[in-house]
Each structure stands twice: as structure tokens, then as C-alpha cells.
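hey can u run this one w/ adenosine-5'-triphosphate bound, need the C-alpha cells asap thx
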Amino acid sequence: MIPRELNSQRLETIGYDTCVTSCGNFLVLDQEVVDNRCTISGLRVVPLKEAFSVFPDMRERLYFNLIRRDMNELTALASREDPVGYYVYVEPGVKIEEPLQAAFLFGMTGTTQKIHNIIELGDGSELNIVNGCTTLNTGDSGTHLGITETYVGKDAHLGYTMLHNWGDTMEVYPVGAVQVAENGRYISNYVAMTSVKKIVSCPVAKVLSGGSARFYSIIYAREGSFFDTGSKVVLEGEGSSGEILSRVVSEGGTVISRQMLTGCVPKTRGHMECSGLLLNDHGVIHSIPEIRGEHPDISLSHEAAVGRISDEELSYLRMRGLTEEQSRSLIIRGFLDIKIEGLPDKVKNLVNDVIERSVSGTL
Amino acid sequence: MNVLQIQNLHVAVEGKEIIKGVDFELDQGKTAVMFGPNGSGKSTLLGAIAGLPGYEITRGSIWYKGRDLRSLSIDERARLGIGMSFQYPPAIKGVRLSTLLNVLSQDAQTMLTNAEDLNMSEYLDRDINVGFSGGERKRSEILQLMIQEPDLMLLDEPESGVDIENISIIAAALKTILEKDKPIKKRMRSAIIITHTGYILDYINADIAYVIMDGHLLGCGTPGEIFEEIRAHGYKQCCECFAEKYQNIQTGDI
Ligand SMILES: Nc1ncnc2c1ncn2[C@@H]1O[C@H](COP(=O)(O)OP(=O)(O)OP(=O)(O)O)[C@@H](O)[C@H]1O
Ligand SMILES: [Mg+2]
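ok here u go:
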């Protein structure tokens, strides 16, 4: 059960334990696991520190394996302490429909929250995770570090949705690395609709033969927010593919959107796209798409566009009687609507709900 | 009673005068049709009435139900009952047709029925006009008008690019909005229809027709009469003759 004193409204903003049924729950407040349930056989959701003793070789195999301890000051700091976070393991062949819900709450103003999560999907397994991050109270300030190492087995499928609802006093440094084995599929779906002081993040996925990695991100940067976010996909195996798609709205905030695709071997293909919408003249959207080919038999492409809401679309909707404000939010909402294939409806609806409420101003 | 009154209207687009002094009146319950060659200013005139951006009224005035439209924004005009179907409707990515229709009316059943009538049921879940064919876009326009139920409809080539079968479907929908089944005196809704082909007139009885040439409104007559003239003699000749013939007739007064 969720401890009663936790502000459930804050949890709702990141979709935690709302009406959506889940296969398991995991909730961390500051550096403490306060809710940990799992109802499905074949799925294990265990606090990482505990997992070290429950699964004898996992520490060796998976902990600080895709990410180096000395990658930066924060990872070094985290590596010196007992880890707080989850180890999620799905046994080979186990397919789970209900999403796993996890949330990370920050409430100790002035400190740094350090989270380390490890996800391992056995061959042929399937899982969806909805991760949410928020502060316990509006106005809590500090730093959040989130390390995530993800291992997608052969023919396995992971849908990983991340909802951020920080505040304009939080600095956030997610560090992510993903390894996708042969014919595995990884989908990341990142949504940040509310203010944040600063987020810097650029997860990397390495994809083996026949596998795919897709990163989608939806960012709404309000006045004063700073995002330096992106993703990298390295196509290491023949026939692997990657997609990076981001939709960025700036209402005065600054967003640097980095995207990089590397095709190392034959028959790799990938596409990336960054569309930005500037709602006023205080904001900045800086899109940096990079493509790197290391073999002639690859197909990589990118598209990027930054602009404002089209007058033509705006007047079209206003001609139907919608106010300017209504029309703008409908267009913005539409702009942010990435039709992602491969995520269960339940997760899509939850994400749409978060976006909807935030665009219509009720978050 | 007139629903629309335009006096000495001059409209400029990007600093260039396109409408060059138009006087026009439309009575409540009446349907007017406008002909004119490409580039003569038909869409510009409708755009100025609707209040679309880019159409600058440099002189003259437009009155709708006794209100000066110049001070009203595009959506204020729409909420007062002016509705438009666009010649080239834009596509709006990410916004489903049904989402827009739901904002316009809470009555889900009517929406479904209207969509069915217009053969648009399977387009409700698609993004507005995205990937719609020319004819589908026009049906989507009319569907939106059906939900919006405007008192004055500005129809910019509602049947261009539409196949014969669908023209009759569109026309039936327009007739419903225009209450053509009611006795003339009871009809409250009015329309201006721009057409090149005149096909729509086979289904909808327009009360009066005008020709626009180079930003001028050149006289009026019955729709059949004017259309025949244009067909027989082309715009240039026929308009010269109309200009003479109808010089002294008060617009809207036949
Ligand atoms: N944005 C614009 N910039 C420059 N010229 C414009 C613009 N919009 C319209 N015009 C010009 O104004 C004139 C009238 O255009 P309008 O669209 O009103 O013609 P129309 O009578 O509706 O023609 P059609 O039968 O081809 O639809 C044309 O010469 C057109 O090129
Ligand atoms: Mg036109």
C-alpha cells in the first residue's frame, strides 16, 4: 500500500496507482522503497540492494555494466553508496500485458536523490513499464539522479514510458543505457509537460541483429525550463533498426534536442525526426540531429523543423467558432500526439491523459 | 430583412487591392450564387466577410445582422453565426475530426447521423483533412458546417473536385442546413455559394446570382440566366452585357 501521508495528487500527475490496473508497483520516496508489490508469476520486482543477494550473479552481470561508474561525478557518487531502485526481471517467454508502475518521489529539499534501476527481460518476454518522477510537494528543490540499465533479451519486447513532473526548482540528470539483443524490441516514450529547472539526459541504445530501438519524446518547455535531452541509437547488428522522434513545444523554455543514429553494419536502417513549435519569442529550440554511417549498405535519414503554429490552421479552427485559446490548445495537443505503435492502449491512454490535462492547464 | 450588407468594400491582400468597391446585400433566408473567373476575387470577398487574416479591409464596411463586422474577430463572427467552407481546407495534424466536432456540439448522436449522411463515418477518427482526397475534404467541410449550423454560410466552391454522386450528397446536406424544405417565408438561414461549374445549382435553388470580375461585382440576375450567359458567351462578353443590363437594378432587389 502507498503510505497514507503521500500526496496522492502528486502521484496522479505521473499516473501512479490511478485507476489503471498494473502487474506490479514500486514506489520510492527519497532514498527509501515505500511500496513494492508484484502479483504476476514470472515477474520479479525487487529493490536493487536486496536483489544482489537474491540473484547471486546479477550484480556482476548487470550493475554498472552498460554505464561506467566514472561516467560523471553523479554516477561516481551513486556508485559509492548502496543503490536505491528496482531490479525488474521477466522470465524468458513470459508475456505480461498489464503495465508495471513505478514512481520516484523527491521530498528532501537541498539534497540529491540517487536512483539506480536495472531492467532485464528474458528471451521472448514482454513487459511495459510506466515510470513516473515527481516531487512530494510543489516547490521541493534539489537534484535527482536516475541511472537505468536496461537489458532486452532476444525476441523480447519492452515498452518503457517515463513521465516527468518536476518543478522549476529541480535539476534532473537521468543516465540511461539500453542493450537490445537479437530481434528484441525496445520502445522508450518520454513525456515532460511541466516546469523543471534543468534536465540533462541522453540515453544510448545498442541494438543487435534484427532488433529495434525507438525513442519518442514529448517535451513542453515552460518559461525558465531548460532541457538538454536526446537519445542515441547505435545499430550494431545486421538488419537492426532505430527511430528517434521528438516533439517539442517551447512556451518560453529552452530545449536542446540531440539525436544520433549510427549504422555500423549492413542492412541497418533508421530515421529520426524533431519537430519544434515555438509559442512565443522567449523560447529556444535547438535541434541537433546527427547521422553516422559506417557501411554503404545502410539507410539513415532525418528531418527537423522548428516553427510556430500555422495561422491557416488557427483561423480554420476559429472559423468554426473556437476561441483562439481553444484552437491553440487543440493544435498543440495534436502536435504532441505521436501515434506510437506497440504500446498497450492502457499506457497510451494514461499518457494522453497526462498530456491532455497539462495542455488544458489543470496539472 | 437583410442579414448581410456590404457597402463600398475594398479589400487588399499583401498591400494589393483585390476587391475594388463592392456593394452587396443578402436577405435572410436567401441563397446567392457568385460566378467569376479565376483570380477575380471571389475567395477574397468571402475571406473578408469571414474575417480571415490577410484580408485587409481598406475602405467600406460589412454589416451582419446589424453589426459592423470590422471590429469582430474571426471566432466572434463564427459564434454570431457565420460559417465557411473553404476552397482549400488546411489539414490539421494530430486533431481528429471527431475531436473538433465534439467541441462544436455535445450531441454525439447528431454527429454520427450527420457523418453517416455525408459518407464520412469512417473519417471521424482521422486527423482533420490529413490525407483526405479533394472530395473528402469538401464533405468534411460540409459535415463541420452541419454541426456548426451557421445562419450565414459562405461556401467556396463546395462541389469542385467532387464526383456526381457526392455532389448530390453534399447538396442534400446543404439543403437541410438551409431549411429548403420549409416554406420560403420561414427560412432563416442564408448562403453565398461560389461555383464555377454550376452543378450545385441543379440541386439547390439559389435566389440570385452575381458575377465578379476583377474585384467588381457586376450586376445580378437569376442563377440560370447568368450561368447560361457565361456558358454561351464567356465571362468577358457576358459581363459587359450584364454590366449594362443590370446597372440600374438595386442589388438583391429582383
Ligand atoms: N496571399 C496572397 N498574396 C498575393 N496575392 C494574393 C493572395 N491571395 C490572393 N491573391 C490574389 O488575389 C486575387 C484574387 O484571389 P481569389 O482567391 O480571391 O480569387 P478567386 O476569384 O477565388 O479565384 P479562383 O476561382 O481561382 O478560386 C488573385 O489574383 C490572387 O493571386
Ligand atoms: Mg477562390
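The pocket of adenosine-5'-triphosphate (ligand 1) is lined by residues B 13-14, 18, 36, 38-44, 54, 87 (CB under 6 Å). anyway lmk if its weird
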